[in-house]
Amino acid sequence: MSEDLLHRLLLNGDVPRHVAIIMDGNGRWARQRGLPRQFGHKEGMKAVREAVEGAVDAGVEVLTLFAFSTENWQRPRQEVSALMSLLQFYARQEVKELREKGVEVHVLGELDRVDAHTRKAVDVLVDGTNGGSKLRLNLMISYGGREEIVRAARLLARRVAEGDLAADEIDEDAVSGSLFTVGVPDPDLLIRTSGELRISNFLLWQLAYTEMHITSVLWPDFTRENLFEAILDYQRRERRFGRVTANS
Ligand code: IPE
Ligand code: IPE
Ligand code: MG
Q1: Which of 9, 82, 175, 199 registers the highest number of CB atoms within 10 A of its CB?
Q2: What's the gap in Å between 74 CA and the centre of ligand 2?
């Protein structure tokens, strides 16, 4: 079944270069089973594996996963520390396989707020996969879209103050180039699981013209098939970027 979907999307040809995912619904998945929320997060790691493998097979160049938001720091301390432990576990367990698959991991966000153990594990993952050329995997951790834009404004202001840049030279490229995602093309496709119809402070600048695919599947249940279905849905869209096209 999933091979059939993959075959179809490869025949269609227009594979999104960059897919971003808001991985949501872990808590509900656990609650439906009468389990603590942490079990949902743990199960969600399987779905991360599915998404990464599916992205590699489909020929996606960049996969960006929203793993922990700036707002998620306000969750109960126990849940935050369970999520950080899982991240450490994921980093140590997956580094070898990711390297072998040609996945280069980047971890983007306000990492100053992340504890030293987790930062160390993340460094091992980033260093250990450096040079992978099949897929760039961005793990967004302690990330918020507004905070990222504020940070970019500060970086640009500093350059202006230092005489390195004129205020009038600040354009869209200058802003893009000051974001965590510098050098990465904007997402073509955004997937959100668990049916929520909102952005939740994800990639506010970069999503300007991204196609959105919302699925009711809860993140721990997400499979490569769901990724392929989202890509097939994307391939049926007509992207206009504000212009008119032959079909309109
Ligand atoms: C997504 O699942 C994971 C994180 C935000 C870290 P949630 O934990 O938000 O699960 P729900 O939305 O409560 O079901
Ligand atoms: C968004 O999910 C953040 C991540 C997936 C990491 P949330 O569950 O935190 O978002 P809201 O609270 O439903 O908007
Ligand atoms: Mg949620």
Answers
A1: 9
A2: 11
